[in-house]
Amino acid sequence: MIILGLILLLIGMLAGIGLLTTVGGVLIVVGAVLWILGSTGRAVGGRKHFF
Question: Does some domain include residue 47?
Fold first, then answer.
């Protein structure tokens, strides 16, 4: 999710499309939060690990 967000963020910045930039930024933040919660051992959505 973080990698997809980074790709969308870069494409949005290079192409000048604000929507892609916003969606990419949101995906990066959500992916980082899920990664941090999963790495601490806290189950999120019934899963201990998000890949």
Answer: no
- Asked if residue 34 lies in contact with residue 15, where contact means CB atoms within 8 angstroms, the answer is no
Residue 13 lies in a domain: yes
Residues in contact with 41: Cβ distance below 8 Å, sequence separation at least 6, in sequence order: 48
How much is the pTM? 0.78
pLDDT digits (tens, 9 = 90+) for 4-27: 999 999 999 999 999 999 999 999
- For 32, what's the count of Cα atoms within 13 Å in the CB-facing half-sphere? 8
Q: Report if residue 33 sits inside a domain.
A: yes
- Judge whether 34 lies within some domain: yes
